[in-house]
Amino acid sequence: MTLPGVVLVGARGYGLHHRANIDRLVAAGVCTLTAVVDPTLGTTTTDDGAVVVADVVAARDHGPVDVVVIAAPIAAHLPLALAALEAGADVLLEKPPVTTRDALDTLLDAEQRTGRVVQVGFQSLGSEALPAFRDGSLVGPVRSAAAVGTWTRNQAYWDRSAWAGRRRVQGVDVLDGVVTNPLAHAVATALALVGCRRASDVRRVEVELFRANDIEGDDTSAVRVTTSAGLEATAALTLCAPSEVLPTVRVRGTAGSAVLHYTADEVTVGDTTRTVGRTDLLENLLAHRSRGDDLLVPLVSTGAFVEVLEAVRAAEPVRIDHPWVTWEGEGPARRPLVADVEAIVDRAADARALFSEVGAPWAHTARDEVLQVLRVDGAPVATELDGSGTIATSSPRPYLHPVRTLGGTVLSADHPADHDWHCGVGVAIPDVDGVNCWGGRTYVHGPGYVWRDDHGRVDVVRAEQHPAPHGGGTVQELVWRGPDHTVVLHEDRTLAWRAVDSGWELTWSSSFRTPGDAVVHLGGPGSNGRIGAGYGGFFWRFADCTDVVVRTADAQGEAAVHGSVAPWVEWSAVFEGAPATIRLEALDHRDPWFVRAAEYPAIGSALAWRAPALVHPGVPLVRSFRATITDGATPGGNTLDG
């Protein structure tokens, strides 16, 4: 009998584990290794002589392709699995299988069309503890399962690949975070223990996602799933604990409770702990092929887990505010520790609750309210948010996000991993008479950037809408407050938007007034002694983009445009494959332009480049801009290095 041939896609990272397992089964005479697919190897054979090929189809030249094991980056799971199925192979696909409901449906359709199968690599679901819990022999019928995970990860973990800690990569949802990747087994196991496997088994999913690391994804999160049968599966997880503890699932039944140590295949009931067996998922897949054994983790059984991913995708991880995070280590060993996180995780698991429900002080759960949606000829081009979702040290304020071209390309970013206080398109000032209304650390001449309890906020207290045939407008009154809620500045803001031949146009005017009889100083790092860092005022943080060209009429490139005074500045780039151009004009002033491109993508007007701007009683300080937003790149010009 010809042994089934296995192809391994992804030889590095967790692929090394799969390779060792395949070698074990080859030695046992269960299968053969036909080839390895991994473009990062750059060789035709591995160090131990395995053939390296470009893809699954090319592997056929070297032997049978019956089973494909995929241990590739998350964004590649769907296309690689589809290619393997179309090639006539069964698939063992690493978790998470995919990140969206639509992608799961696509893969399920491919299974049915090709007659092949996908087994998903939730290894913990091969544990013999699961059927023992299901038949009620351990604690009676299961009523709830609470996963607990307190791990620690340092900067090297997030630097290991381009997709680590990212939510999207090149337009594809990755959703890499504690729920979906490092502790995904905890979530999947809790779901399985309450019999919640398919999407139809899910009634409701609630998530609270937080991040202490400088990442897009979540590293400290809580999940609660209510099943269609009224049972609960929860998960309280962190990668920011002081030490790493083996994850568990606390199971409650009608006749008692137990703890499943799923990584060690141990079950504790009362004072007794026993070890149970586990079936290897690749062996199970091969047995399914040879003698019809039921798959332990068929693709359809991960529907409930994908529903959790949908909830993760819909939510935005919130930064854990500075007072509750300490950092230790340097360089690759640097890691954050969230205050009291182990006790909070424990309380959440016991109560089957979210972090905010057990009093976690860093669980900022307020969400932005939409103040208005800007539309041009019926198309939504920007949304104004009130800033409620912004944490205190990022200086909550209203802003526009997402801002789009008429073609729908998103041009703005809010709360990016590198600067949580960068909020779409808006006005922020680092120093309003000593109040930080920009966010983050405060620049102090000499010591540099330091954390201070000086953060303010900006609130809209009055707004009037002014509809127009091809756009619209609004007049708003805003108050700028200090950390003690004292009003430090008034602003009258006028926005107007309309269609133009090249796309659409936004006019923004901010008129600042003093709250009393004293002069108000508007400053920032530049006016406080940091040369070349005079940011503060109108600011646009762009979405991730490539092929950047930034220019004025007389200069091009970050170094030349930054700090220059010109009537306009233009930013042309490619945003997730779509080119777009933004031209920003200064209408009533000659402030220098602030530009960042190599470090992060942003442009702004420097209100206090070298000296503070002064607001005198009875004499408003006005700054007005016009932005023209166009689908397509500006012809000509060289791309910016970096």
Could you describe the 3D structure shown?
The structure is a single chain. The chain is of the alpha+beta class. The chain has 11 helices and 39 strands. The protein has a 9-stranded mixed sheet, sandwiched between helices. An 8-stranded antiparallel sheet has the order 27-28-29-30-39-35-34-33. A hairpin with a 5-residue loop joins β36 and β37 (602-605). The chain is globular. The termini are far apart.
Give the strand content: 35-45%
Number of helices: 11
Helix proportion range: 10-25%
The biggest beta sheet, please? 9 strands, mixed
Q: Give the CA-CA distance, first to last residue.
A: 57 Å
Morphology call: globular
- Strand segment tally: 39
What is the structural class?
alpha+beta
Give the integer mean of the pLDDT values. 96
Reconstruct the topology from this structure.
Blueprint: E1 5-9, H1 15-27, E2 32-37, E3 52-53, H2 56-59, E4 67-70, H3 77-86, E5 90-93, H4 101-114, E6 118-120, H5 129-134, E7 142-150, H6 155-158, E8 168-169, E9 172-173, H7 184-193, E10 202-211, E11 220-227, E12 232-238, E13 248-253, E14 256-261, E15 266-269, E16 272-275, H8 281-291, H9 303-314, E17 318-319, E18 325-328, E19 335-338, H10 341-351, E20 370-376, E21 379-385, E22 399-403, E23 425-432, E24 435-437, E25 442-444, E26 448-450, E27 457-468, E28 471-481, E29 487-500, E30 503-513, E31 520-523, E32 537-541, E33 546-551, H11 558-561, E34 568-575, E35 578-586, E36 593-596, E37 602-605, E38 613-615, E39 621-631
Parallel strand pairs: 1-2, 1-4, 2-3, 4-5, 5-6, 7-12, 10-17
Antiparallel strand pairs: 7-13, 8-9, 10-11, 11-12, 13-14, 14-15, 15-16, 18-19, 20-21, 21-22, 23-24, 23-31, 23-32, 25-26, 27-28, 28-29, 29-30, 30-39, 31-38, 32-37, 33-34, 34-35, 35-39, 36-37
Helix pairs in contact: 3-4
